[in-house]
Amino acid sequence: MFEEIGQFIIKAADIMGGYPLFFLLIGGGLYLFLSSGAVSIRRLPAAIGELRRKPSGGSSTGQISSVQALASVVAATIGLGNIAGVAIALVLGGPGAIFWMWVSALVGMATKYHEGVLAIMYKGKDDTGNPQGGPMHIIEKGLGPKWKPLARFFAIAGLFGTMCIMNANQLTEAFMTTFTTPESLESSAFLSQAGSWLGLANASVYRLLFGCAIAAIVAVVILGGIRRIARVATVMVPFMVGLYFLMVMFIIITNIEGVPGVFKSIFTEAFNLRAGFGALAGIALIGARRAALVNDAGIGTASLMHGASRNNEPVREGLVAMLGPSIDSGLVCTLTAIAILLCGNIDVEGVKGLEVAMKAFSNGIPAGDILLMCIVICFAMSSMFSYSFYGTTCANYLFGTRRGKYYAWAFLASLIVFAVVPIEAAVGACDLFYALMAIPTMIAVLFLSPKVRKATNEYFANEKKKTE
Fold it and tell me: How many whole angstroms separate alpha carbon 222 and alpha carbon 412?
């Protein structure tokens, strides 16, 4: 029965997360990029400058600052997708898939700009008066009450799409790969005894126990609310990105002669027509699909966090939000791809993610798999912290804050469940729910994009007057 359900999820994800998702996110993002006058390129200096500006004043309410919102969003998006997701893209689509991840990052920056603007422009409140953001409020307040069924559709999809399915699964897989062997699992008397009591194999018992440990650690942070999540994120993000950068720099320096070949393969394989246009479209689709799981542009999660910002200027929030994809899909994913292509092997059977990355870092750095394991823990945990807030916000919208608070416990339970399921089903479930979240989000963003353009033109016209 469970195998049949898993196969159904995988097939549904292949349909929803295939060409429909590609045209919705990449096509819609490209429209937003062009209609906004290439905002992700032209306004990048202004976006970087926003990080140094003080929060806007006024009567706006919120729970965190714009920079904390960005750190929390990046903490969510810089997760195992940046390592396992990139490895999966390389295994399934080859080096050319990375080029399409870059394209997705560029258009994703434009999409996230629009999401950030709309999150402040149509900020909502929960039933206790606390500010709330997200596509459900953007849809209901921006498009009107008659669109409320679409808002609820997003919130329902968001309940499941924000459960860190792949993070729990791949973190468990990483620990098993690094610290155990099949022989050690089978010879463990404790696991055997527990397995006989639960009716599970030793490996499944190990996964179950590790999932419980993950849930316990995550509970310490997420039960403290958004402010604790934001404080932890602002510490973890600079540390984990900086350490990861140093690790990849070591691999690049010690394998410098192979770097030109890596970039050559990325560009040549991205437009390789030797296998026909179908193969080319497949490579582009794989890259875009994995990028959607990495930067979340067009999925709606960014507006959930940025809607809680104290900023009262929509354009300024949009500029800060725009930086997210440049960090995760642009910088971190590129670092991962270079390391794997220099020191790893992507010619493997089946869907392999973190295992491929772990072997590449082990080949490139002494004890590299152990060091990567430390990074993986930080990446996975930071994602879980922020995603719990996303799901709780959706639950509050659907059920009210009194009942919505119980979502945190459901989220913690899901970490245990998804630590045990096969990776193919975990990847399929992620893709499926992300596709379902993207549909209402992109509909709202595309319909309201003229209002974003108007606000952008007015803001920069006023900024220009101030400098004259």
Answer: 9
